[in-house]
Amino acid sequence: MLTPVDLETTVFRRSFRGYNVQEVQEFMAKITHDYEHLYRENIDLKEKLDELNAKLAQYQLMEETLRNAMVLAQETAEEVKNAAKRHADLIIRDAEQKGDRIKGRIKEEIQGEIQKLATLKNQVEFFKSQFKSFLKGLLDIAENQLEINIQLDKQIQSEMKSEEKEPVPEQELPTGDNNQIKTALDQVYSVANE
Q1: For FRET with 118, which of 91, 150, 176, 191 sits at 20 to 30 Å CA-CA?
Q2: First to last CA, the chain
Q3: H helices present in the chain, as ranges
Q4: 139: which residues sit within 8 A by CB, 6+ positions away?
């Protein structure tokens, strides 16, 4: 490529009947001036182009860095999301296991209380039957005693008649006591049968 200096220093040979030297030199001066202007503008444009290419490279580097950062952020977000999901699953599984253990413990306690209740019912039934037997025994003893008292009364009355003594007034005989005893025994017997 020609430089402006090359144009200035270019010398044409003279020939007979050649071009007008002054016109050629004026034309060359104009061309040199325009060419110098275009040459400098070209250099400036190349410098600007280099600057813009440098900035473009810088922006491309920044774009690549941002792209990598976004990819890394997405991967990190996925990892955090997966870790949170795993953690939530662990918490849920742990809560379910604790709930199952608590349910099992409560079932065991309920079974224990049911067994205690059954034992108490059996004890109540046993006590009730024992108490009934005891009351029946007392009733039998009382009835036997009542019969003995009645027989004694009859015997006393018969002996008194045989001795011809004055009969004892009825109110002094223990018959009223026997009736009270019999009434009390009937009440005990009815309670025992309930």
Answers
A1: 191
A2: 136
A3: 4-9, 21-162, 175-193
A4: 185, 188, 189, 192
Tell me how far apart the alpha carbons of residues 192 and 187 are, in angstroms, rounded to a whole number.
9
Task: Give the number of other CB atoms < 10 A from CB of residue 179.
Answer: 11
* 8 Å CB contact between 2 and 35: yes
Calculated CA dihedral for residues 73, 77, 82, 88, nearest 10 degrees:
150
**DSSP code, position 173:** S
DSSP 13: P
Neighbouring residues of 104: CB distance < 8 A, sequence distance ≥ 6: none
| 99-132 pLDDT, tens digit each | 999 999 999 999 999 999 999 999 999 999 998 8
Tokens of 25: 């030199």
What's CA 91's distance to the chain center, in Å? 7
Question: For residue 25, which phi and psi values (nearest 5 degrees)?
Answer: -70, -40
Among all chains, which residue has been given the structure tokens 């006590």?
Answer: 127
